[in-house]
Amino acid sequence: MTRHKTKKVRSPDQxxxxxxxxxxxxxxxxxxxxxxxxDTESWVVGVPSIILAAxxxxxxxxxxxxxxxxxxxxxxxxxxxxxxxxxxxxxDVARRxxxxxxxxxxxxxxxxxxxxxxxxxxxxxxTTSLLPGTLSVELADDKLLVHSLDVGADVQGxxxxxxxxxxxxxxxxxxx
Length: 176
Hints:
Layout (H helix, E strand, L loop, with lengths): L11 H24 L7 H18 L11 H27 L8 E6 L5 H13 L3 E7 L2 E6 L6 H16 L6
Antiparallel strand pairs: 1-3, 2-3
Helix pairs in contact: 1-2, 3-5, 4-5
């Protein structure tokens, strides 16, 4: 009598979790490789760092708890917008700092979110901090408090545009 080996089939849930873990580890590997410019000697520190980052990532956001419901076209448009704004903002900040009169009017701006969803709001707050001349100070309920180098500029308008770009990533409509 011959015995047939049965192949163990993973459930979709297990497959999703395995894919999630694999993508995270692969992402950390790519990030490390880019940061070290492919230096093979750095892997002595890199491998433990990647393992630690992956474990912390899995502890913070367990596999399968967040779905990537993003729209590729909206994401591409956002990335192009972000790169463009980064260059424009950097030039503006440099111009202000190097100008003899230093035309700065720093202050706080309160922005009322029109987008819902915690992930979208956190992405907006983080993106605001990455753009030169602005820094997210507080994210509370439906408001974002932003420090700006020039409150005389149309900070509200720029934040509305940014929020619209983030809404396109998630494929959601803005309230109001």
